[in-house]
# Entry
Amino acid sequence: MILVAQVSDTHFDLGARNAERAERVMAFLAALRHRPNAVLVTGDVTDSGRPGQYAQAAAMLRSDIPVHFLPGNHDDRAAFRTGLLGAPASGAPINQVAWIGDSGATTGVTVALLDSTIPGEPNGRIAPETYDWLGEVLRGAPADKPILLALHHPPAPLFSPVVDVIALEEPDRLAKIVLDDDRILGVLTGHAHSAATTTFAGKPLLIAPSTASVLGGEWELELPDHVMDYAPDPSVALHIIENHRITTHFRTVPMGGRIGVLPTEPTPEPTLHV
# Structure
């Protein structure tokens, strides 16, 4: 069994609140009986792409579990590279591939982390050079091992009046790749600030919640108010890959800690009748 944790939309802003929530999620993952084989952080790592925010993210998300980052629309490619990847600054798309599993390649999954950002824009698009890169990854991946694609922007509507207008543009080329390759188990995204599942090109599309806040859907929003809810505890997606299938659980991480016994209400005093 391969266990992949997906953390998303942490929005590090140099404040204590979002940092503490992300730190609590990482502590939860580290304490699991079966620890994740890897953690994927699917974009909007920072709130405005400032170098200090990446330094805060690097400190709070540090773990002995391998952590893989991809950018979101709130991130800055150059600062992302220097602050999280230890690479020279560049404005080119940040595309990475990760093998998650054992070192002997007998059990594991290839994860292609795609940069879907458009610098300076909230919506997403996969650049031609990213498609070329993905083609090379797929050609080089093991023929009998599963593959996951991860990006920030969902490529399908989620019935969110906020997210759907800034989702992935022109997803048809990606859909054909997903449809034509039986090794691809599903697509993982963030951006929606809501745990959600649907299908894309006949495969699972799994959207991780945000650690920072919850964004409402069209059935609950009252624009321009009641858009973001900062009250709920942070959440994380847990993906289990086994027997060439993916199973996902979403787990809330309580900021107040775990309660293992159902609290009991005090027994009311008997009423005396005279």
The longest strand covers residues 235-242. The helical segments are 16-30, 51-60, 77-85, 128-140, 172-180. The chain has a mean pLDDT of 95.
